[in-house]
Amino acid sequence: MTESAEAKTIGFTPIYCSGKAMFHVSAGVPVSDALAQASDFLFLAKAFTEDAAYVRDTDRHAWAAHYLTAMGKALLDDVVKAVTPRPARKDKKAAK
Q1: How far is the C-alpha of 46 from the C-alpha of 68, rounded, in Å?
Q2: Under 8 Å between Cβ of 75 and 34
Q3: Is residue 28 classed exposed, middle or buried when 0-12, 13-18 and 19+ CB atoms within 10 A define those classes?
Q4: What is the C-alpha to C-alpha distance for residues 48 and 59, in angstroms, rounded to an integer?
Q5: pLDDT digits (tens, 9 = 90+) for 34-79
Q6: The pTM is what?
């Protein structure tokens, strides 16, 4: 496993809007910062979903929660990619 203190986001994970990749997680963000930001996004999304359950005249809270969870998920997915060890690569020349 990659040392988490040194690990940084790789920036490959997209954030989707209407099924299309609109944004990507930035590469080079320390994992601890990315996880803190994802936690903030998910905390706000939880608050917005509670509001959406009680405020019936608008859907703005539900859509805000939707986008915040998409951003939080992208950050978490990118962190997982950054800290998951890559499979060992076999050298084709050594196999012959």
Answers
A1: 9
A2: yes
A3: exposed
A4: 10
A5: 999 999 999 999 999 999 888 888 888 999 999 999 999 999 999 9
A6: 0.78
